[in-house]
Specification:
mainly alpha; Globin-like
Length: 130
């Protein structure tokens, strides 16, 4: 029987496994392949803090994901197929290891993030430039 996401170790398992899948994914990996080992480690550690805060309200994550993704979007478009793949991978990895209230919350938060990011990034391109 699977268990729920209960602590930082569970978050690390989720994030590490998710990004192991991203590294194998031809659609998502190109957004990360330019990172050095140190930049990659910093990103993964930031994701531990992000998901720990998203699920346990630790206050440990103070970043602005939308701002970061806007910068990426300006260089390399992120469209619906990218968001769908990201969400599908996240849900699959979560379901592989976990079940319960926090696991469901993680999947719901991931869905909400993908919707908001899509809307905000598309809004960015829909605004006419002066």
């Amino acid at each position: 029987m699977k268990k729920d996401i209960e602590n930082r170790s569970d978050i690390e398992l989720l994030v590490n496994t998710f990004y192991a899948e991203v590294k194998k994914d031809t659609l998502l990996w190109p957004y990360f392949e330019h990172l050095t080992a140190a930049q990659w480690q910093k990103h993964v550690e930031r994701m531990y803090l992000f998901w720990e805060n998203a699920l346990f309200y630790t206050g440990g994550y103070l970043g602005n994901p939308l701002q970061r993704h806007r910068k990426i979007y300006q260089k390399k478009k992120i469209d619906n197929k990218h968001f769908k793949r990201w969400l599908d991978l996240f849900v699959a990895v979560t379901d592989c290891f976990f079940e319960g209230e926090k696991a469901n919350l993680a999947k719901q938060r991931a869905y909400n993030i993908s919707v908001v990011m899509k809307l905000k990034l598309n809004e960015q391109t829909a605004v006419p430039k002066k």
